[in-house]
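Notes to self, Stage V sporulation protein AC:
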Amino acid sequence: MENKKKVTAADVVKEQDKTKKAEKYNQYVKDKTPTHNKIINLINAFWVGGAICVIGQAFNNYYTHLGCNKDQASGYTALSLIFLSVLFTGLNLYPKLAKFAGAGTVVPITGFANSVAAPAVEFKKEGQVFGIGCKIFTIAGPVILYGVFSSWVLGIIYYILMKMGVV
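result:
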């Protein structure tokens, strides 16, 4: 078994030779970089994402059981998932879940709600206007912008195709 001495940041800083300093720095970074098991990450993402979808389906079935039609049940389900995502973000549970499950938490509606709520929580201390108001769409803003732009472009294409009698 290899008994290699761990390189510390102080060792890197103290080294005078540039080549050795670069080698120590690379070894230091390699030692500090966490390693991940891709298979375990994939399994965690799969079951957590699936669990979020099962919770959504359970909400949908519950609202349908209460007498809502399909559209109403879908709306209430979306609201419930958004509420839970924002609540878990506010309680600092969603980031821990995202760290554990990775892409499994990027189920569109919960991931989007988290991307809006997380900056609001983070920048709350900077005030209502310059904190929350300015930063709330830091992550979600580009998604909204390009989503609206894409739908606008597709609407124009659809309109042109409709006028040409293609659709």
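- Residues 38-136 form one domain.
- The chain has two domains: 1-35, 38-136.
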